[in-house]
Structures are given as structure tokens and as C-alpha cells.
Amino acid sequence: MINRFLKKLYFGNNFRTIIYILKFLSIFNKKYKSRISFYNFFKKRKKKYEKKILEIMYHPKIFILPFPYDAEKLINTIYNYDNLYKKNEFSSHGHVNVYQSDHNLELNPNFFDVCKNLELSINSKLYKYTDNEKLIINKLWFVITKNLGVIKKHSHFNSDFSGALYLNVDENPKKNNGLRIHNILGGIDIYRYSIEENKFYKNICNDKTFLLSPNKMDLIIFNSYIEHSVENKDSKIIDRISLPFDLIF
Q1: Which of 43, 89, 125, 201 could form a disulfide with 15 if both were Cys (CB 3.0 to 4.6 A apart)?
Q2: In this structure, is residue 54 part of a structural domain?
């Protein structure tokens, strides 16, 4: 009964009201507290959503698929980036042994091709799950993570979906390396793409936290409100390189 009422408020873009209700209910039952961050994500965006988009966003999803592209060429482009290892506004985010480029590479001619191909691949593979709504990249950057590097838990508030293309990772990563998903909402749908069958296979993960260990040229896409972090312990490679991005409808 309560969940149905909250869902009705959600589709009416009444996120602030829902948060007040959940804070009150959490006094009596802590299970309601975990859902607050989900609605807070929409409240902070300060925009009115169409019902169609809210339906797409309601249940958390992660997509894992291969992305055929020239990794070495892209890695070479990254190492020739003009501001490589120079301090920027992302240098003091509390991460450890991590360098992030400026978050505007979608405007850099050296990254136009990969940006265009990412958009084409994502929209051609995910159209069934986005109800044919087109996604575009509004932020693109690269991350170089050294051994023992850590990216602390966070989510992306200025986009609808987020993702990362993995250019250089350990071939046989240990269980403590990879992208850690913090599943505070419960029941994340994980879709893995099969090249042979040209379709996704779905599993549901209810673990409170779990680790995704990507292979080279894996593309991982997820709802931007999903909290995640990165762990890179005992890496056998000097630089773990990824190309994260944000997507909006």
C-alpha cells in the first residue's frame, strides 16, 4: 500500500514529498531509509521527468557488453593528452593513486570518433531497455589508476546513465580488483551480452555489495544513481586505464 502510494508520487515528480515521507517512516522501520538516496537523486536534478523516462529509470540496471575498438590507438591518444597528470578540479576528490582528466573530452577532436562509436553501440544494443529513447554522451573523461589505487564510493548526479570502457586491465584480475557496486536499493538487474546469440542474458543480484571485474574492452553501463567505487589491489599492470562517461536522454 505504501509502496504503491510512493510510486504514484514518483511518477508525478513529487520527489521532495517522498523523501519527507520516507524520513518519517524510517523512524519506525529502517528499511525505508535506504530508498531515500534514490529519490534524492531525482530531487537534486531539479527537472521534470516524463513518465516514460521515469519508468525506464525506476529499476536499477547494469549492462555489460564488448566494445570493438582500437584500444592501443586510444591508449596512445590518452598518453599524449596535453594536460596529462596536471592538477585539475578532479585532483582533490579524495581518491588514491588516481588521475582523472578534465570531464569534457567529448569536445576534444581526438576523442570524437570513440565518442560517436560509443553512442552508436549503446543505442543499438540498449534500445529495448530504453524504450527507443536515444542516449547521448554529455561528459567523457579518462582515468588512470595505479597499483593500490582507490576511487571512493560515489554516484553521478548530472546524468541518467553512466558507464566506463576498460582499455587496460589485468588479464586475470583477483577477486579484490574491479568496479564495486553498492547495492543499497536491492535487486539490481545485470544484463550480460552474448556476441554469439546477439542478445543479453539477465541475472538479478541481491547482494549488498559486489565486484565486477571487467575484461579489456568491456563496456559497463548502469543507472547514474547506483553508488560505485573502484579497487585496484595487487595489480600486475602499471596503469589501469578506463574511459568513463555520462549519458543523458
Answers
A1: 43
A2: no
